[in-house]
């Protein structure tokens, strides 16, 4: 296992403690929602004081009538959002970074030529920037009943001047889990590129998700800049994907046997939960291994993140399906186009695709209940649209309206409840309804699920993947573990994994974005 030799007097902490990254602080100043610090080192006996909470979630243990409740709340922030660090378990002397910001030319540079592109350990960025004046404000996310403003600072991502690994002896592994998502190859490519710049030569891919750790028939895939040079030109994953896994112990046994020092895990909520368990098991065994995640979910349902990679591409591709449905519906006599999009518990793709296309009359998402039948139901509204416009287009997320279907206890390989097919159900209901009232309806049903997730990332997602992949490597070399990298309030940050896996991120029915969608579609409440 490659690592900088620790200094004498190894200090141990309780490996069950989250948010235990000790840091020293000095003066700082604020600019453009980023907090820059000028301290240059870690100290062992102090903690960082800048933390974040999930806005909108109250702490029942805090007395908000206490004038000092904010201080108590900030202390809770500190416990929750401190980044686990290898120095929590080992006294390690960092070394100057090998990540060169100037790669060519003379080694001797004038002071004016030196590029100040490194991130200070105490840099922070704000998670939220809106100060809500009232809990009744649209989309309000309040901590206390009065919606008081509390600064929520999280760790800024990026390269540090000091690193905690000797790059020449590091073995790094990359694994992609879950389903396909546009941009997987882009992230893999940038992780390999950045490791190469640091000087890491031993880079391997673990094939087919967590399965690659325990399936004896699967071998590591050697990776290099040459191997991954053009993989971003295609969709899918160079390493393959799969759902389900072995036990945490088996995976960590494999990590030990392979002598992996850094493991980069690309996946969604379930994969992150597994990664956190791997991180905790590594700490329990006192292994000097950095576990760093990159959120991968086409549904955009990771907590605290502005968006996840693949989402923009999914929305763009979903528009093509919506455009086809519109043309089919508009060209037919009493045509109704029905498009089912991805979104098990979150309707972000359906909402954004409906907004961006401008052709949707009805948008149905999991977060907003609706009725199909009755005087205020979807079917009655479609009947009115056919009378007024002669056609209609419906967009439905796959997880919407599950209460209208027969329940099932079946689960997939990842442990998710198998959803009923709401698209087919609505298609049949539309046909039955219009036949029952003696009105012709030509229903065209489109399900572009696999077309959307298997394509190459668009330009926006490619840039996001590039920065996420690079920052994942920077986080590992900075000595962090049990973290994920993401985009929060337009800035790239590191977050402790437990804070993003408590529940899926969902569309807020009181948010301005959902209200914009309703304004665009003109649909009523279907209740």
Question: Can you tell me about this structure?
Answer:
With 527 residues, the chain is of the alpha/beta class. Among the domains are: 158-307 and 457-488, Rossmann fold; 311-455 and 511-521, Phosphofructokinase domain (Rossmann fold, 3-Layer(aba) Sandwich). 29% of the residues lie in helices and 15% in strands. The strands form three sheets. It has an eleven-stranded mixed sheet with strand order 1-2-4-5-17-16-11-10-7-8-9, sandwiched between helices. Helix 2 (184-198) packs parallel to helix 12 and helix 7 (311-331) crosses helix 8. It is globular. Residues 3-57 have low confidence and may be disordered.
Briefly, what is this?
This is ATP-dependent 6-phosphofructokinase. This protein has 13 helices and 17 strands.
Residue windows where pLDDT falls under 50 for at least 5 positions: 3-57
CATH topology of the domain at 158-307 and 457-488: the name is: Rossmann fold
CATH architecture label name of the domain at 158-307 and 457-488: 3-Layer(aba) Sandwich
Helical content, roughly? 25-40%
Query: Strand fraction band?
Result: 5-15%
How far apart the termini lie comes to 60 Å
Subunit structure: Homotetramer.
EC number: 2.7.1.11
Binding site for ATP: 179, 243-244, 268-271
Subcellular location: Cytoplasm
Question: Which structural traits does this protein have?
Answer:
527 residues; alpha/beta; Rossmann fold; disordered N terminus
């Amino acid at each position: 296992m490659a690592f900088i030799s620790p200094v004498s007097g190894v200090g141990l902490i309780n490996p069950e403690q989250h948010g235990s990254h000790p840091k020293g602080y000095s003066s700082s100043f604020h600019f453009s929602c980023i907090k820059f610090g000028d301290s240059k080192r870690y100290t062992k006996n102090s903690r960082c004081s800048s933390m974040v909470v999930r806005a909108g979630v109250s702490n029942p243990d805090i007395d908000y009538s206490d004038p000092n409740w904010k201080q108590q709340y900030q202390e809770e922030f500190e416990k929750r959002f401190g980044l686990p660090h290898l120095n929590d378990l080992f006294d390690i002397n960092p070394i100057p970074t090998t990540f060169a910001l100037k790669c060519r030319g003379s080694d001797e540079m004038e002071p004016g030529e030196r590029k100040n592109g490194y991130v200070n350990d105490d840099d922070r960025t704000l998670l939220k920037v809106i100060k809500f004046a009232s809990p009744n404000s649209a989309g309000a996310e309040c901590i206390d009943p009065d919606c008081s403003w509390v600064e929520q600072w999280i760790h800024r991502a990026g390269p540090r001047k000091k690193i905690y690994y000797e790059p020449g002896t590091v073995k790094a592994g990359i694994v992609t889990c879950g389903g396909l998502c546009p941009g997987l190859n882009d992230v893999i490519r940038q992780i390999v590129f950045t490791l190469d710049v640091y000087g890491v030569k031993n880079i391997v891919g673990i094939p087919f998700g967590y399965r690659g750790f325990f399936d004896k028939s699967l071998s590591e895939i050697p990776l290099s800049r040459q191997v991954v040079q053009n993989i971003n030109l295609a969709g899918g994953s160079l390493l393959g994907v799969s759902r389900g896994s072995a036990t945490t112990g088996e995976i960590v046994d494999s990590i030990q046997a392979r002598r992996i020092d850094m493991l980069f895990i690309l996946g969604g909520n379930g994969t992150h939960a597994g990664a956190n368990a791997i991180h905790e098991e590594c700490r329990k065994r006192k292994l000097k291994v950095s576990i760093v995640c990159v959120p991968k979910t086409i549904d955009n349902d990771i907590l605290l993140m502005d968006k996840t990679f693949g989402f923009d591409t999914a929305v763009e591709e979903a528009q093509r399906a919506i455009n086809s449905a519109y043309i089919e519906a508009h060209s037919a006599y009493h045509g109704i186009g029905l498009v089912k999009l991805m979104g098990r518990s979150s309707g972000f793709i359906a909402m954004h695709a409906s907004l961006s296309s401008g052709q949707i009359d009805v948008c149905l998402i999991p977060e907003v209940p609706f009725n199909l039948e009755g005087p205020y139901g979807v079917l009655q509204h479609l009947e009115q649209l056919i009378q007024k416009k002669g056609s209609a287009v419906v967009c439905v997320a796959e997880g919407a309206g599950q209460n209208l279907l027969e329940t099932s206890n079946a689960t997939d390989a990842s442990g998710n409840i198998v959803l009923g097919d709401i698209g087919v159900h609505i298609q049949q209901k539309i046909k039955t309804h219009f036949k029952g009232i003696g009105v012709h309806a030509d229903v065209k049903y489109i399900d572009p699920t696999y077309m959307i997730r298997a394509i190459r990332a668009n330009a926006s997602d490619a840039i996001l993947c590039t920065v996420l992949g690079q920052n994942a490597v920077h986080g590992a070399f900075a000595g962090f573990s049990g973290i994920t990298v993401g985009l929060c309030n337009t800035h790239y940050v590191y977050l402790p994994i437990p804070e993003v896996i408590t529940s899926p991120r969902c569309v807020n029915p009181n948010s301005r974005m959902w209200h914009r969608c309703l304004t665009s579609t003109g649909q009523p409440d279907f209740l």
